[in-house]
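Sequence and fold:
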Amino acid sequence: MSSPESACRMSPDLSRASEFPAVEVPSPDGASPVIAQFLTIKAQHKDVLLFFRMGDFYELFFEDAGVAAGALDIALTKRGKHLGQDIPMCGVPVHAADAYLARLICKGHKVAICEQIEDPAEARKRGSKAVVAREVVRIVTPGTLTEDALLSPASHNFLAAVTRVGGETGPMGLAWLDLSTGDCHVAPTAPDRLAADLARVGAGELLVPDGLLADATIARLVREAGGALTPVPQARFDSEAASARLAAHYGVAALDGFGTFSRAERGALGALFDYLTLTQRGQMPRLRPPRREDVGRTLLIDAQTRANLELVESAGGGRRGGLLAEIDQTRTASGARLLCERLVNPLTDVAEIVRRHDAIAFFLTDETLRQRVEETLRQVPDLARALQRLALGRGGPRDLAALATGLRRGADIAHILASPPAGLAGAPPVEIAEAANACRGFDTLTRLLEAALAEDLPLAARDGGFIRAGYHAALDEVRSLRDESRRVILTLEARYRDDTGITSLKIRHNNVLGYFIEVTGTHADRMMTAPLNAQFTHRQTLASAARFTTPDLADLESRIARAGGHALEIELDLFRSLSAEALRLADEIGAAADGLARLDVATALARLAKERRWSRPHVDTSLVFNIEGGRHPVVETALARQGEGPFVANDCKLSGVDEGGRLWLVTGPNMAGKSTFLRQTALIAVLAQMGAYVPATRVEIGVVDRLFSRVGAADDLARGRSTFMVEMIETAAILNQAGPRALVILDEIGRGTATYDGLSIAWAALEHLHHVNRARGLFATHYHELTQLTRTLDALTPVTMRVREWKGDVVFLHEVVPGTADRSYGVHVAKLAGLPEAVIARAETVLASLEQRAAERPPIAPVDDLPLFASRPVAKPSLDPLREALRAIAPDTLSPREALDQLYDLVAKARQEL
């Protein structure tokens, strides 16, 4: 029971934590026994917040209390004094701790959970001042969450580690695992692909050796990856120690049976396992053997491209409006996670892609079969996370019930797929057959769990009442005594009324006295005189009542207490036994959970393809890229919801000179649909290679190995980067990394600077893409001068967004057609935006004048006398005072004030020069 004082601590904090002075955690010397215990444990966990269990609350003291009160917006109170100072304190109720943990984790904190590990009654046996034994049972970090309340059911929460061996040019390894499901992966990586690898993993927490953070490039990449960054001593990544640690965990002599891992990969895996040992306090989870991913197995997509294409989240933040939310029609949590994993990790393995397409095709052949499977999947709980909580010792009766329900529904689905309708020709494809087979063989365990578990289950096993009546005879017997106690008490109460003649006599109970007999004050004297005092022993006198006990009542109370405790002990033993039976088949249950997830994804994507008229893409190892009738999967649906008419489909053929060119130069006005066309082309490639059907009439794609997209504009003021600088950094990454198998989407390169500077950069970038990168791609621009390059670049094809002018207005048709645009219609768009009529009229006058002047100039001629991108001699300019002043500036060493002073000096010098 929580006290009123404790309840008040949960009210809004009217005296903000920041107003309290920081309190240095003192030594336990001279502290009260409880505070001394807290300080001793806190000294071992200095870098985390300590949740110190005291009855129904987790309490925090000293600096921890100030930090937590501010982060959680709860009241900061005091608890006595230590060394003459008030002790700041705040707390959260144990039953609601998950919600507060989630908020602390989201704000970057880590929390050590310190539990009472003995009963207070046992502590009292050691003396009145004895303190209940406590110890930290777990450290909660962003990458080690397992509770449903702290996790998104539709996405993984990965803990990752990256390391490098052999110096600055040595190989690197990346490992990641999901503690809540047991999935474990490892892959080689390198500086030029690390950002893309980290982006696809999307770890909630990343472990990095402190030595590696000394490399400025690597440090920047890991910090930009998002998630919590945890520096770890380099020694934790030792590959030899890691090999021994992994072999011991999996009970094998060597790791060869799991694959061939490099030193860096073993080091990264070892650091993960070491971190779990630290945070889980030796309660190591069930982890599947690490699955190694080869370089080149997945389509690499960097973080900026993912954001540009809005794969998982929309530009405004959140899932709504992103591609994932639009295609997610899964019925289960594990299916939703698998769909997300496939979307962020499209494949380059043609055979595996075809397997996934075959699974969708199977469910498209018979809608009734698909619907039966879907309806059964709807009843499947999250098997993987339920199993993992049981393995970690954090599970409850509902997790056992989840296993029983999930495995029973899995068997039902296997039966449905084993006897498809007569009209369905041929056996199920490999993907479906493997998934169905994984769901078989659990009848014995399912029957056991169904027989043992009651209908209404508590969240925690310690609450009792979860074993079905009739399952265990001894439990039924002690339950009978416990549950019949009320009837027995009433019988005894009636007997005492007869013995005393006091009709108002009651047998009552409280937590202090236990069971007692209560009579009103008018009968107290009679109960305390002969002959009744020989039978009734006085215990307490109140203002209006007196309380007594008897040997029979004391014996009954003892038996009732023992029965309740004994019943709970039996139930807890049965829970441990049932959990052990389930964990004995942990690997098989994990495989069944995977199979159900695969079936869920296949049926969901089949329904998506059926409802939205998506087609099966043909993916091979060629360099072909042919989309007929392509549509944007998100925009098309949005238009349909808003009733704004059908989406205009467009073709895209990037298959070589004879078939239209591998590079398209896209021109046309704003609002005509250029950005939509660019993005839909990239999204169709992603969908095809993740193993889904695509929004198009017909698609042929030679596997894309890297996808780059630079669409839209944004600045990065936090790192001192303007919009144009961000644009150039992203463009540089593309031009330095794209190869012949890459797909490149570029929009408005060079627009963020002066006209001629921007045109020059766009011109050179387009030539580089054509001659050096030789990638397939779309290059959208408003620089109409670039269309001249179509005469000299063989693989460059001009296309434009079709518009129609009618009665002085411009109609955007959103259609891509061969040719070039001679106008951008920017003034027309400005008019639509609501600029004042005077501004529009003046702009039209200026535009006409500028266009006339441009028409009088000769066209830009390509430079043919020097080889493209050859080194050209650059004349060294003579240094004038302004240049000398610029060279003398060291911007990284200047304060903001000094930089402003330097700027004024430069302006003054420039004016003198002029």
